[in-house]
Amino acid sequence: MAKLRWKRTEKRIGAAMLTVALLTVAAGCGGGGATTSDGKDSQAAAPSGPVKLKLAYDNGNTIPSTSPDSNEALKYLQTKLGVQFELNINSWEIYKEKIRVQIASGDVPDAFAWRTMDDFIVGMIKAGEIVPLDDYIDKYPNLKKQKDLYITKYQNKIYAITNVRNPVASGDMPMIRKDWLDSLGLQPPKTTEELYNVAKAFATGDPDKNGKKDTIGIQIGYANNAFIGVSGLQQPFGIQDKWVKQGDKYVPNFATPQFKEWLEWMQKAFKDGLIDPDFAVTDGRTAESKVVNKGQSGILFQYASRMNDFEDNYKKSNPNGKLVPFEPVKGPYGRGATGRVNYGGLFITKKAAKDPAKMQKLMEWLDFGASPEGEQFNLYGVEGVHYTKKDGNNEVNAEATKRDMPGAFLWTLPVGKTEEVFVGKKNSAEAQKLVSDGNLMLEKFLKLPAPLDFAFSPTRSKYNAEADAFINGSIVKVIMGSLSVNDWDGIVKQWYDRFEGSKWMDEIAQAAGSGDTK
């Protein structure tokens, strides 16, 4: 069940465009590159001047000047690294079309960003126009530290440098109304049974003491074929990875007995009034608002930053309200939380790899961004321009920093400190401690997504959105009771029949056997 970001639907660019792109790239790039069989740079004379690097990537909706004559941050970075950037930076909605057209025209950058492993990228890999990066990464210490988080793979090789984050930035943080627990004389739940009982007390026991039955036990939502706040409820039932090995086969997680056990628990919880009765028509923002603005709901599995939002909103008019983290509950198949890991990333083309000087500078740029010095540059920019040191602190020139946007010229960053993830410095010391302590607690239970979750499959590419909508829509019906849990095997069979499930499974098994994972 896809729950990561970047779910917007791409505009269609025909298969013919992809074919033209690959043929043009192959013609434009020429023959073999100047790299050894293990991917290491061959010897090359030192360049006589700055190495020119053509880069393309997306960067939000605000783009700074990309001329060093009018951008002090870019000027500093180019001088420091000995490079001359030619940059194509756009917001994602503009970028994704422009880069495909650019490549189709034969104007191939040295490196470019893409957010998934799809037909476009796999076609370029098979044509030899994108290079694997494992051996390069190993030679650069700051990148090597992050290597386990680069999960964009094909045939067991890393093909993209991901702009990583600390995996504790997870949407599975369990949070609960501590004031409601105190009001009812309860403790934070430790098991799925206790979670059920606490949620029932929240929904029926008038925890806010207003004499009305207007509280919700567990807050979830559903919008755009995806659930909000559900993954943390699945972990106790052993549900995380999208594909589960059964014998010599891989089956989708919704085809497992554990999934039916989870559906039974959810259906009973909904029937007994523990779950928001309007969850099926409640998008993410509305679901969060019922907790952090209206204070209607008592239990939420979401990002830790919701505790900041709670203080910024509900707590201002209800100072006794308190939303706190608690440990993931234990269920029949354990407990845990899914680490938040980005996929896709920056791909490097054969055009760059066959030029050792270019490849070296590309990797130095990426390694710098992942270094403590790169983090300092990202946060503060250039000393004397964007900030000055005074009494051991950095005084920021906000106008210059906003104008030049130093971070726009880095792709990588170090992994953030666990105790600082989602900590809002503008919030109270109490709120900062809640978030920080929650992160340190959750880190012990984190599980990274399996790379196989994102394995390239032509059948997946063909049906993914429609198949997700079918399964998730059916889950909604089971939870709400319009379908029986006993009907689930029939739903799974329909999935196999409608979406070439057996073929899909074979492709995943082949990917697992060859190490072909995204």
UniProtKB/TrEMBL annotation:
<keyword id="KW-1003">Cell membrane</keyword>
<dbReference type="InterPro" id="IPR006059">
    <property type="entry name" value="SBP"/>
</dbReference>
<dbReference type="InterPro" id="IPR050490">
    <property type="entry name" value="Bact_solute-bd_prot1"/>
</dbReference>
<keyword id="KW-0472">Membrane</keyword>
<keyword id="KW-0564">Palmitate</keyword>
<keyword id="KW-0449">Lipoprotein</keyword>
<dbReference type="Pfam" id="PF13416">
    <property type="entry name" value="SBP_bac_8"/>
</dbReference>
<keyword id="KW-0732">Signal</keyword>
<protein>
    <recommendedName>
        <fullName>ABC transporter substrate-binding protein</fullName>
    </recommendedName>
</protein>
<feature type="signal peptide">
    <location>
        <begin position="1"/>
        <end position="26"/>
    </location>
</feature>
